[in-house]
DNA sequence: TGTTAGCACTCGTCGCTGTTGAGTGCTAAC
DNA sequence: GTTAGCACTCAACAGCGACGAGTGCTAACA
């Protein structure tokens, strides 16, 4: 059985209706809404076909039809039209963009917060991936006689720091000299390039009278290890799910919220590999990726969809922004909004990047 | 009517029972449990008295009795016995304490995470209050020709940083000299002492050839302003509330979670002034403070209780740790556990403090 | 051959009903 | 002052029928 134009129209209508109402859609309703001059009986036949083909499902015998994951997938790939942001929405965006304040992590957080308010779904943002980040500078700041701060700045403008206790008293000048040496040795290396071997090399290259500061080098490997592992996820607007009847069941809501609370599992969910079923004609151009229901392996996520976009600094992928919501999601709005946000982030970050390369 | 020993015993028993079962307690049950050799009818009379006195309430005519806020308050102040941690609990604590890793904010977070698992309620932690913190050091780290990082370290070991763009090219050495100057001028001042006037003074004291770096000073005021306003709350274990039947209603759960999501309102709830009704004989010695139901002004919190303790560095209050849960809370366990955690924090922070004063 | 009207059937939802049981308050006797 | 007894209250629950939205099938129609 093949998907004629009429079936497409009916499927489209069912999905639109269901997205709006959250209630199973009946043939009568479609017959009225869609002005094809067809009776409900005919629609009924077509819908039975669509069900057989796997695009629709019936919660129970005498209920209307509900889109299946496959149905949504077809909708997303073939039927969905581009959503044009309303004036009000554009205005919100504009206001938000005024808050381009300096610190990178704050930009991130506020973007995620905004996205959750903007879409009414739960928004998330993964922190910049730093594996390929290069070290811009290393600085040792003495705090007192026995402790100092190690500060690492990468070329993404990200900064990590750690306080270190030194066993012996060391004078400030000495620390400065050591600091300069480190800067010289480490600047420009990517985080991937700095490994145990490299550190050993540096140790050997140093005069032995720096020996007492060798623990500092070990701390640096620690920090880098931390940074590498650290894929922070920031989640915003978790309570938005209460707006959707699919989570009206306490158990469902709980499951979902517990899932979001566990950053590790969220990260895992977002790392989910791109699989063939998810291919989407639009994805190349829009860079927005959609995972529907069971397409995502996780149990908890079976009735949720995830819409994400990467964001970039220059050409390098930095992380992901996106939303999580019920499979019955307004995909076209979601895509349009996420596209905007990711473009916004690209712009802000590219400005930073540009600054960096001005030297 | 006065509260005789028998009434106290009955009230105690009702509350214990209710805390354990979450179900209205009947006279028959008490008669059996409490071995006073009294019949349920007698207990019934006493309970009617306790209700008249305001310590108990009846959800509806033919249900058992439930403690009122006043009842809990009496329980907390007069009846409750000290809870002795079990071996298993002590062991958990021990394990947790091994994670005393360096960075102050990580210690905080892991303490809150632990507390929520330990108590099964929702835990929170307010970030160190820094108003009275003194500046330990200021450092300017050049990143490239047109930008640098301002790093502020306070004597609590807290660190703030901000990236700053400088309009003109300035050489590294120049920045270093300026940095040293700043360090000299600002070190030792408390955040409260640094205000616009002070900054102006510094500007004037500087030679005019530093003029181009004056914007940096303005950024410093910005950061300090940020730090002052910033009373970060870290909340952990929000989904624990799903374990308690008082939140089995979706609306209730939602309300509660939305409240916790809004950091500002949480901060406000915790700032709630100490009011006379809350006076507690134990509070001086234990430093644990309990707010029961409506004692806390907020609407959302009418059926929740908050148990908090301050934590200190040396003699100075740094912030609060605590838990939020239903008024039907196991107060004695809660108090015991929070006491431990706050002691632990005091110890960890005092070590930092001690380190700082070693110089 | 595709479309449609008609009809029997399914099944979840809603409101009503009666039953059950836990718990109370009151009264009268101890 | 205590208690046994009893009538009363009320939430929770299960059973029941009416309702209605929606279906699938069949037979008639263009």
Q: Which architecture of the largest domain in chain A would the CATH scheme give at its second level?
A: 2-Layer Sandwich
Oligomer: homodimer
Instruction: Tell me the Rg of chain A in angstroms.
Output: 26 Å
CATH homology superfamily name of the largest domain in chain A: GAF domain
Beta-strand percentage range of chain A: 15-25%
Give the N-terminus to C-terminus distance of chain A in angstroms. 63 Å
Query: Mean of residue pLDDT of chain A?
Result: 84
Structural class assignment of chain A: alpha+beta
- Overall number of domains of chain A: 3
CATH topology (fold) name of the largest domain in chain A: Beta-Lactamase
Helix content of chain A: 40-55%
Q: Looking at the structure, what is the overall shape of chain A? A: elongated
Strand order of the largest sheet of chain A: 7-3-10-9-8
SS elements, strand count of chain A: 10
Question: Can you count the helices of chain A?
Answer: 13
- What order do the SSEs of chain A take from the amino end to the carboxyl end, as H and E? HHHEEHHHEEEEHHHEHHHEEEH
Keywords:
3 domains, Beta-Lactamase, 359 residues, Arc Repressor Mutant, subunit A, homodimer, elongated, three-stranded antiparallel sheet, Enolase-like, domain 1, 10 strands, DNA-binding, alpha+beta, five-stranded antiparallel sheet
Structural account:
2 copies of one chain form a homodimer. Chain A is an alpha+beta fold. Chain A has 3 domains: 5-79, Winged helix-like DNA-binding domain superfamily/Winged helix DNA-binding domain (Arc Repressor Mutant, subunit A), CATH 1.10.10; 87-129 and 231-358, Beta-Lactamase; 135-229, Enolase-like, domain 1. Chain A contains 13 helices and 10 strands. The first copy, chain A, has helices at 5-21, 27-33, 40-52, 69-79, 87-97, 104-119, 172-186, 196-205, 214-229, 250-261, 263-271, 283-286, 331-356; strands spanning 56-57, 66-67, 122-126, 135-144, 147-154, 159-165, 233-236, 288-292, 304-313, 316-326. In chain A, helix 2 packs across helix 3 and helix 6 packs antiparallel against helix 13. The longest helix of chain A has 26 residues, at 331-356. Mean pLDDT of chain A is 84; it is low at 275-285. The interface between A and B is large, with 36 and 36 residues. Chain A binds a DNA duplex (30 and 30 nucleotides) through helix 3.
